[in-house]
Structure formats: C-alpha cells, structure tokens
Design goal:
mainly alpha; MCP_transmembrane; Mitochondrial carrier fold; mitochondrion inner membrane
C-alpha cells in the first residue's frame, strides 16, 4: 500500500530548532521506555484474558496445533520496541509512515519469536497435559522440532509485513491527528491537552489494527500450527492466506477484530499519553 502524501493545508509552521545531539536522543529513548512500561501495565490484563475468549482446541501432543490467539505487534507493540516519540523536526506524512515501517521491521526481529513463544504458552492445555514448563522449555522444543527458521521463527515473513504496516500507520495516524489539532486551533503541539493526546493515541491504535489485522490473523494461525506430517496445516504464509480465504472467505481475516479494537484504544492511548507527557516534562 502506498504511503499517504502530505496534505499541504495540514502542514504546521516549522518549529524552533531542537537542541539535538546525544541529549535529545536520550530523552527520546527515555520517553519511549516510559511509554513501553505503561503499555505493558495497561495491556497485560487484556493479554491474560484474551486467549480464554477464543474457542479452545487444545493439542494432545507437543506437535499438535493449538487454537488461534491473536496478538498485538509485540503485545501492541510490546515492550520489545519503543513507541514513537514526538519529533521536533517537521516531516512529511510519508516520512512518518516510512519511519514507523522501518521501526516495525527492526522490531520484528525480536517480536516474531517472542510472540510465537507467548502464543504457544497461552494456548497450551492446563494441568498435567501442559506442553511447556516455561518460556525456555518452549524455545527448546520449538528449535528441536523445526530449527530456528521453521520452528522458533515460524511466521516471521508475515510478522515483518504486519509490523511494518502496523507501525507505519501508528506513527502516521498519531502525527496527523496531533498536527491537525495544532493547525486547527492555532496552538503549539505542547499546548494540546493531555486528554486529547490520549484520545489521538487511542485512535492511532485503532488505525494500527484496521490496517494490519489480516496479517496478524495469518501470523497467529501459523504460530499455533502443528509440526510434522499430518499435524502441520500451513506450508508457508502464502498457503495460509489461501487456506483462510478458501475455508472462511473474507470474514476469516477479520475474526476477533471487535475485542482487539476494544483493547487497542486504552493501551495505545496510555502509551502515547505517557510518551508525550514525559517528553514535555524532561524538555
């Protein structure tokens, strides 16, 4: 999908030059880390409850397929990645999208295997029938059954696409909403009230999922698939897309979207609000 271009009527006056350098980089990283912590604290209860809302089909062996569990990019997008921090230099909206997409590609290196392990642990049976004793045991079994490429990093191609699209839309939507508000009300970005920052962050989270959810469905199906002949249903990303389309049609790519959007609003709102408020405080 082509990145949106910059509407001229929404462009802000060029802001004052920032101090730049290592100090500003540290502030950006610190604000992003604070937002990541807030994201995990807000999103964790949803992540615990979410798998139980799926129709279970527990596997009977370590190689059997588990039930689907949709997950956010790095748990929306998880603490494995810093959320976008407010920039003090004016960029075009296509550049905002590109920055987010590149961040998503970098993030996918970690988010792919981390989410794979998390989904396996969350969808395994309870009690004596459980398959994995913990994250490390899950990693060992995945590597033993499929190696790094087809085991631990299963579904990595579609994860990379999902992360690029999701982060690109996340960055783009938030910056467009913030810039539009500042332009409309003739105020500086830092004067936008915190409740609006949270609202725009939440709306950006909705845009993230609306633009990337089908990729997440395919990723989840591949990462809950079994191993070995007779157990593995999807050969690769393309085959999984084809199977979902053939068996469920377009509706199959949007199953579970409602609960995901409900989760995305508070998580993304809290993340952006903390990032923005932290940046204002330390600047």
């Amino acid at each position: 999908m082509a990145a949106p271009t910059t509407p001229q009527d929404l462009a802000l006056p060029e802001p004052a030059p920032s101090s730049g350098g290592a100090s500003q980089t540290f502030k950006d990283l610190f604000s992003g880390a604070a937002g990541g912590i807030a994201q995990v604290l807000i999103g964790q209860p949803f992540d615990i409850v979410k798998p139980s809302t799926k129709e279970p089909s527990p596997p009977s062996s370590a190689s059997a397929p588990a039930s689907q569990s949709s997950s956010a990019p790095s748990t929306t997008p998880a603490a494995t990645s810093n959320p976008p921090s407010p920039s003090q230099s004016q960029l075009s909206y296509s550049q905002y999208y590109s920055a987010g997409a590149f961040a998503g590609v970098a993030n996918s290196v970690l988010s792919g295997p981390i989410e794979h392990v998390r989904i396996r642990l969350q969808t395994q049976p309870h009690g004596p029938a459980r398959l994995y004793s913990g994250p490390l045991d899950c990693v060992r079994q995945l590597v033993r059954q499929g190696g790094f490429t087809h085991g631990l990093y299963r579904g990595q191609a579609v994860t990379l696409i999902r992360e690029a699209q999701a982060y690109g839309l996340w960055f783009l939507s938030f910056e467009w909403l913030m810039n539009s508000d500042a332009k409309r009300n003739s105020v500086d970005r830092k004067e936008i009230p915190s409740w609006k920052v949270a609202l725009y962050g939440g709306l950006a989270g909705e845009a993230l999922w609306l633009g990337s959810y089908p990729f997440d469905v395919v990723k989840s199906k591949m990462q809950t698939d079994g191993f070995g002949q007779g157990q593995q249903r999807y050969r690769n990303m393309r085959h999984c897309f084809a199977q979902v389309w053939r068996q469920e049609g377009m509706r199959g790519f949007w199953k579970g979207l409602g609960p995901t959007l409900l989760r995305a609003m508070p998580v993304s709102a809290g993340t952006f609000a903390v990032v923005e408020m932290t940046m204002r405080a330390i600047n």
